[in-house]
Amino acid sequence: AIDISKLRDQSGFVTLDIGYKNTGATKSAITFLDGEKGILKYRGYTIEQLAENASFIEVAYLLINGELPTEKQLADFQYEISRHTLVHEDMKKFFDGFPSKSHPMGQLSSLVGALAAFNPESLKSGLTTEEVNLEIKKLLAKMSTVVSWIYKKSLGHPVVYPQNKYDYVTNFLYMTFAERTEDYKVDKVIVDVMNKLLILHADHEQNCSTSTVRIVGSSDANLYASISAGISALWGPLHGGANQAVIEMLEKIKNDGGDTDKWIAKAKDKNDPFRLMGFGHRVYKNFDPRAKIIKKACDDILEKLGINDEVLEIAKKLEEVALKDPYFVERKLYPNVDFYSGIIYRALGFPTEMFTVLFALGRLPGWIAQWKEMKENKEPIGRPRQIYTGDTTKEYIDIKKR
Ligand code: ACO
Q: What pTM value is reported for the model?
């Protein structure tokens, strides 16, 4: 095979693959994905095994450090993270400046970017491995606090300070849902489903936001800036924003009388920009293994919480019809992870606009692992080429004569 990177000096040699449909941008030892067979593995472990058995913080350790932790390593990791969950009080002044209705993703990308400013030690050049690892733990810790702040703001409630005695997910749920500190009990069923959801989102090789993190980091931008850029990339409805878009679509179909056939017809109509949100994937052309796991988790949690959600019935009907329809079958369009995640978040009490923020919380270890790998591999700055299609030379005309 030709090693294209070796051809860099041969000016004029440019491969064109808009959207990088068939172009690899890096070598990576983190996540394996077989879109035809519907296989997803983190560091060699299937997503099914991890979602069934592991905690989110254990998976974060695996992604970032390459191996599953021992009991002691996990306890140390959890302990060190819990020491950094407090966010500088001055950040609150900045946070308070957001209007109460500002979109949670806009708040999140700004707050994570601002963490660099509040951690000037992270900006030093030539950080040691230990210093980088410390910043990673700080980011993991502070992200959960900041996400809970954003949720509290959406309600107009005061923030709840972290409790170091809790594990990562329990502490997050505590800061998010506790109203009075003393008597709040986090429900184990909810902790379990939250762990599962975050694990399913934790990494997905070179997707749009992860590639963004790597490319921004490749300029030697700091960790917080790189992750903040990834959060912005995730916001788009064709990527992480799809989980919000799915619920909005299902609500719309419900309010329109629940006629799923009508909406399927719209999705197939090439003159209609409407797409069935939560369907299709750039890489999975058989099924999304995460969707299988999440669908079951969704049924379980709704049953356990005794929730009868009409929107879920519409989702099931849409899936049933679409899976038989030649348009979707021929194009290999199956429900993806976001088709179900929103229904669970909703059942847990999160407002729709928070869904993509929760995706970001889950994806954080993956982004960090990819950023770290890119640094360790000493990858060159990412800088794609182009095929120029604009005008050739033109003569400048004075503004008064144009
Ligand atoms: N509804 C209707 N038609 C669709 C859909 C959909 N959801 N997705 C793809 N198609 C059609 C396209 O119109 C195209 O048809 P054509 O060949 O007749 O022109 C064909 O299927 C291929 O679609 P592309 O857009 O070329 O596929 P691509 O790989 O570029 O896009 C994407 C993948 C962005 C996920 C797309 O399927 C989509 O927009 N889905 C809806 C949004 C969504 O759910 N995004 C979440 C992705 S998962 C994640 O980020 C976690």
A: 0.90
